[in-house]
Specification:
alpha/beta; Rossmann fold; seven-stranded mixed sheet; 7 strands
Length: 221
C-alpha cells in the first residue's frame, strides 16, 4: 500500500470527499444502509468488498478507511477487477487490493483479520458455492467484526430463497435487518457469533488495552 503522501484522492478544492457508503438510492428508501454501515467503518480498518463489481462501493470504503487502512475487493469477473484497478489508480487510491476470484475462496485473506465485510447483492447472484462463501465471510471476520449482507431478490431474480436466507442469518448475530415486500431488498447488519471456538491470542491481548476495557465495561461485559 502507498504511504500518506501517495494517497491523493483527487477532489476539487472545497469539494466534500465521498466518505459515505451510499448503496443504490432506490434501495436506500427501504433498507437505510447509510446508518447500517457507517458505524462499523472507520480509519485504519481492514475491510472486504465481496462481489465488488466495478468498485462503486469499494472506492467509498477506501475513502472511509484512509491510507492506513486496507480494502480487499473481490469479484468473479476479471473485467470488473481491471476496471476497478483503473479507477482506483486514476483517483489515487493505493489501499485497495483487488482479486478476480470466487467469493467461495478468499484464501489470500488471513483468518480473523477483517473488521468489516460488505456483501451487497452477492449471495443471491451465486449459482453455486454460496455456503462456502458464507463460511469464508465468517472465517475472515475478526471476533469484533461486522458484516452487511443483502439480497437483490428471490428466484427467478436470484438464487437465494427466504428459507436459505434465514439459515444464513442463523450463522451470525443479527444486529439489524430489514425486509421489503417480504421478497425484495432483504438486508441484515450482522456480527460474528460467539461459538465458543478458539479466539486468537492477538485479540485477547487487544481487549486488555484501556480503550477496549472501557468499551467492554460500557457494554456490560
Amino acid at each position: 500500500m502507498g504511504q500518506e503522501s501517495d494517497y491523493k484522492g483527487k477532489h476539487k478544492v472545497g469539494e466534500e470527499k465521498p466518505n459515505r457508503i451510499n448503496l443504490n438510492p432506490i434501495r436506500r428508501l427501504f433498507e437505510n444502509p447509510q446508518s447500517s454501515i457507517e458505524p462499523y467503518v472507520t480509519k485504519g480498518q481492514v475491510v472486504a468488498d465481496i462481489g465488488c463489481g466495478p468498485g462503486y462501493y469499494t472506492l467509498a470504503l477506501a475513502e472511509c478507511v484512509g491510507p492506513e487502512g486496507r480494502v480487499y475487493a473481490v469479484d468473479f469477473k476479471e473485467n470488473y477487477i481491471r476496471e476497478l484497478e483503473k479507477r482506483a489508480g486514476e483517483r489515487g487510491y493505493h489501499n485497495i487490493e483487488a482479486h478476480a476470484t470466487s467469493a467461495s475462496d478468499l484464501s489470500f485473506i488471513k483468518d480473523e483479520s477483517v473488521d468489516f465485510v460488505l456483501a451487497n447483492g452477492l449471495l443471491c447472484n451465486m449459482l453455486d458455492n454460496r455456503k462456502l462463501a458464507v463460511n469464508e465471510i465468517k472465517r475472515i471476520l475478526k471476533p469484533t467484526g461486522h458484516a452487511y449482507l443483502s439480497l437483490g431478490g428471490f428466484p427467478p431474480f436470484g438464487f437465494v430463497d427466504r428459507a436459505e436466507w434465514e439459515t444464513i442469518l442463523e450463522g451470525f448475530t443479527v444486529e439489524r435487518r430489514g425486509d421489503f415486500l417480504q421478497r425484495l431488498f432483504l438486508w441484515a447488519a450482522v456480527s460474528k457469533k460467539d461459538t465458543g471456538k478458539y479466539i486468537s491470542i492477538d485479540y485477547v491481548e487487544t481487549t486488555k488495552r484501556p480503550r477496549f476495557l472501557k468499551l467492554r465495561k460500557k457494554l456490560g461485559e
